[in-house]
Amino acid sequence: MTVILNQSLTGISIGAVLLLIALGLTLTFGQMGVINMAHGEFIMAGAYTTYVLQKSISSAGVSLLVALPVAFLVAGAMGALLEWLLIRRLYTRPLDTLLVTWGVSLMLQQLARDIFGAPNVQTAAPDILTGNIALGGGITFANNRLFILGLALLSVLALTLILKLTPLGRRIRAVVQNRDLAEVSGIATGQVDRITFFIGSGLAGVAGVALTLVGPIGPTTGTNYIVDAFLVVVVGGIGQLKGSVITAFALGILQSVLEYSTTVSVAKVIVLVAIVAFLQWRPQGLYTLRTRSLA
């Protein structure tokens, strides 16, 4: 029982990482219909932002706190620039967005190699995040994983409040439900798209900061997580924040428990088969978007 509980806690921490990454995709893919393969490189940008800040700030704790808003702004600006230069011309052509952003992701990876080098680099975690918390009965939870969990839940809360309570959130939801009606109602849909892309990409940068606490980072840091994050969004339901939260933790726990009894590769195969079977039964995902559209 202790082993299962420990594996479940590990799965919760994996789910927190997936959730942080999937939050941005919930906006850019789920709500805007854009298949952004460069999302992983925005994660990489957030991770390298932490690395650069640690070079100029001696305190690991201070640099981590500074890196969170800075990484959000850096990755968000990259996303807004990508949307303005390319994505806005391809909103009705999702497959084209996949090909274009895949090319952009390769370019950004090569740019990272040119600037930081091909080998992975390591960042230092604050002392307070290097230990474990004993929960009793041999059950422990790593401090860095607990921080990532708190960061993910805080990001979910902030995004929920923005979408539910702010004028921007109401405009975003209006564009998602019926873009044409939103346009004739006076909503500047292009501006809303750009802001939404900024927020989604910025959340990817925050996820990159979190990944520096898990292990070394490199040019392909984001690529290692992007497929799992897309699965979280699809299984949870396109554009459904609640579904992404549930799916991220469910997949994290399932994968962690299976890895203990099998191997990492076998566990991933079983999880993928389970996802395919679930989507065959419920292709719309856990939750569906309710709209006023008759189409």
Short description:
The chain is 72% helix and 3% strand. It is built from eleven helices and two strands. A two-stranded antiparallel ribbon has the order 1-2.
What is the topology?
Blueprint lengths: L1 H30 L7 H18 L3 H26 L8 H23 L15 E5 L2 E4 H23 L1 H11 L1 H6 L4 H23 L11 H14 L4 H21 L2 H18 L14
Name the descriptors.
295 residues; mainly alpha; ABC transporter involved in vitamin B12 uptake, BtuC; two-stranded antiparallel ribbon; globular; transmembrane helix; transport; ABC_UrtB_bac; amino-acid transport
Please describe what this structure looks like:
By secondary structure, the chain is mainly α. The chain has one domain: ABC transporter involved in vitamin B12 uptake, BtuC (Orthogonal Bundle). It is 72% helix and 3% strand. It has 11 helices and 2 strands. The chain has helices spanning 2-31, 39-56, 60-85, 94-116, 143-165, 167-177, 179-184, 189-211, 223-236, 241-261, 264-281; strands at residues 132-136, 139-142. It has a two-stranded antiparallel sheet. Strand 1 (132-136) and strand 2 (139-142) form a beta hairpin. The longest helix has 30 residues, at 2-31. The protein is globular, with a radius of gyration of 19 Å. The mean pLDDT is 86.
